[in-house]
Structures are given as C-alpha cells and as structure tokens.
Amino acid sequence: MARVMFVREQWADGNPDLGESDGNYMISTARRLGHEVEVFHYDDAAAALPLDDRLVIACLKFQPEVVLFSHLISWGDRNVKKETWQTIREQCGYAGPKGGCSARVVGVWHEGVAPDVVRVADEHADCVDVNLFLDTKDQFLKYTQRPEKCLGLFDPRDPDEFKPGEKQINVLFNGTLVDREIRMLGYLALMTPRMIDPNATVGIGVTKIGGRRELFIPQDDMVRMLGQAKICVNFSDAGPFRHYKGRVAEAAMCGAMLMELANDETPTVLTPWRDYVPFDLRPEDPSSMRQFAQMVRHYLTNDRERERIAQSGRQAALEMLDGRWFWKSLLERLGIEDGDDKKRDNGATGTGGA
Length: 354
Hints:
CATH architecture of the largest domain: 3-Layer(aba) Sandwich
Shape: elongated
CATH class of the largest domain: Alpha Beta
CATH topology of the largest domain: Rossmann fold
Oligomer: single chain
Distance between the termini: 22 Å
Helix content: 25-40%
Order of helices and strands: EHEHEHEEEHEEEHEHEEEHEEHHHEE
C-alpha cells in the first residue's frame, strides 16, 4: 500500500459560497483499498503561513510516496507555484523500511479533451512525474506537447457510497442544463403521450438534480436519488468534445440503467447495449427527439430488459470503475508496486521519466 497525499480545494472553485467541492472520489477509493491518505486543502483561508510554505511543511511531515494535486485554472497565480512541486519531488518523500524514495508528483486534470486544459498541464510537465487526465483515455494526445508525461484513467467511484435503492424515479438527469438539455428534457417531460405511443395513458416523468449553480443538493441526497432512478440520462459532451463523465459510474453502481449520448470513451469500460444504452440526439431534428423519447418509453415499459441492462452495467462498473484498476495502473506507472520503490521511468505508457 502507498502513502498518498491529495492537494486540492475544499470548496467548489475555491469559493465557500458554492459549498464543498464534490471531487473527493479518488480519496475515498484510495482509503477503501487500504492506502494511507492525507488531504491538504490549499484554499484554507484561516491558514497563517503562505500556501507553498504550508504545503512543503505538510509533505515533509507526512512523507508521501505520491502527491496528487488539482489546479484551479481560474485561480491563476493563487495556485501552488510550479517550482514548489519540483521542490517536493526533490526534498520530500518516504523513508520506509526498504529504503527511501522521493515523492512522485501527479497533476490531476479534468476536461482533458479541452486544448486550454492540456496547455496548462503541459506547463507543469517539467515539475511532475505524470499529468493524469480523468475524463479521456487518449484525446489529450491531440493537443499535448509532452505526451511522455500523460496518462488517461477514468475517475473512479466508491461502491460503498453508490448503491441501488428502491426504484421510484422514472428518468433522472444529474447535471447542468444547457440549451440542448433544456429542449430535450422539456420535450420528454411535457410531450403528450400519444406523440410516441398511441396507447399510452401516462407521460414520462423526468427528475432533474445537480448543477451547482442550478439545483445543488448534498451528496447523500444525490446518491439516494440516483439509487431510486430506473433510468439515468447522461450527456457525454462538453462543447464540441465528447468525453467520459463520472456520472457513468455513479448511475451504473446505483443500479440505474444508463442512457448516454454516444461517445468513444465509455465503451472502453462498459459494453454498449449490454451494460448501457447509447443514443444520438439532434435537438434541431424533431424525429431525433421523438426517437429518443420512444427509447425511453420502451425501457420504462419493459422492466425485465431494463433491469437486465442495469444489472450488467452495475457489475461492469464494480469491476472496472471502483478504483482497483485506477490505482494499480497509476502506481505501476509511477514505479510503485506493493510499497516497493522502483525506477521512476517504469511506466505503462510513454517514458514517464523525471
């Protein structure tokens, strides 16, 4: 097992007014697997010492083998300085019974399909061992100038937190609404049943949760509602890009049947039509909207088929997205296996050199 320090924000976007950040999933999976974990919040407004000094002191005290940090692009110069990460690599580490090893530093990035995010990750390449992208296996390769420092692994979820419940919600959407989602969900919720099924007597109920600036709810309530959903709808795109979202694991582990906008990432861990239902949607095309509504109606009225897909998806998520593969792959890339120190450039892909 490894000694792992997480350096991250306590508050969403570093702003206490937005509530606690919901990006703790790697932390809970690390603890569940037995890794020794320490968490350092860089947005602690009550701290007396400067941020970088506090961080180095904390690393010297904890002696981590791995330091994973998030970086708020909106914070600019308020983030930890790049040279501080290099200092931690050179001066901090673990003095274990089998000999000492320097700390490996990992930059953790969401939106790895976005050129601006990859550019900032590249700016940190010389002071990290790995830039880890959580939402794509390889799309960052289109933009990075430092592919040897990059690794793509999907953000894991703790199955002890995400569990099935009694199914009371027909269709659930968890996330932020943009124009396309508003049009599609509005169509699904407000249409007359006869538009998709002449024999229908009831409409399709849609429950919308999430979106920190829209309808934010506490984590426990969000998980409970996911567990109650028969179908969870997920959109895999961000602007012109399609990528993996953690809602895939959340919905599947909670026993909902996932319906997701088709993309190339999710099929690497879940099998389309066996573990989840992909769909394509063009809001400007009424026939596309109608076809989507027909799919939803079909699975709501065919319990056995829906439950079979949901159960298969849950089993696949428990096998592939519960953190075991994530931590095994990351630690092997860093040259850490069962607590033994190995060469830093012993990576699964790329050179991974210092």
